[in-house]
Amino acid sequence: MEFSTVGVVGAGVMGVGVAQNLAQTGHRVVLVDVSDDVLDNARHELRQSLRAYALFNKGAGADPQAVFDRIDFTTDYDLLAKADFVVENVTEDWGVKQRVYERIDAIVRPEVVFAVNTSAISITRVGSVTSRPDRVVGMHFMNPVPMKPMVEVIRGHHTSPDTIETARRFLGGLGKDCIVVEDVPGFVSNRVLMLTINEAAFLVQDGVAPAKDVDRIFTSCFDHRMGPLETADLIGLDTILKSIEVLHESFADSKYRPAPLLKKMVAAGLLGRKSGQGFHTYR
Known about the structure:
This protein folds into 2 domains: 5-182, NAD(P)-binding Rossmann-like Domain (Rossmann fold, 3-Layer(aba) Sandwich), CATH 3.40.50.720; 189-275, N-(1-d-carboxylethyl)-l-norvaline Dehydrogenase, domain 2, CATH 1.10.1040. Helices cover 45% and strands 13% of the residues. It has 11 helices and 8 strands. It is globular, with a radius of gyration of 19 Å. Residues 5-183 form the 3-hydroxyacyl-CoA dehydrogenase NAD binding domain. The record marks 140 as: Important for catalytic activity.
């Protein structure tokens, strides 16, 4: 296998999903985070996800325990030295991402590609703090990762054609296709989606309609699988807020001003599915 061992940095919702997808397709995974508590939660979430995947995909052939055993959970960044590819999934905070890339750039072999799993942060900016800007590429996975067949791949200013081709082969090994777009804040998906979610939050805030009815408009009238606020709950309202704030800062355009209701909910810990309460209830 060309990418026999893959480093996954960040063990939140997206990191666990990427690790699961990799392990299900036969890769060894080094899943790194800074906290043992986060890693313990990642183990719990992964076991639940694997049970659910086996239940809804009978005959898929992936033994949940065998998949789990392909993942090494660790706080030791030095274990990334054996990685053939790295996917980074830390929070949408430039200061945090910058420190992570400066750290892993000194550990991971020079020829290895870094994939930035981000919804808004500039790939060019990430590449600028590494010694390999030509081997840094955006790889915007969608949640839940194992169930989504398409990935938005972002070409930074210095990203080489070889790196784009490597990204295609890597994703092909996960059973996924990709669409390549250019490096602008929010790219395609989140430049549109974050505006939609933010405006939907304003509708709830302004009393135009409750969250359930806002979502029903989209699922019933437009045949969307999920409404914008249910989508926000799935992604995590803290992640949504950070993404909108990045867009607001990047474009200096008031249309990206975060809805005060969204900010209030995040401050209150109402983060969506992962907290049990967001625009909808999941208890």
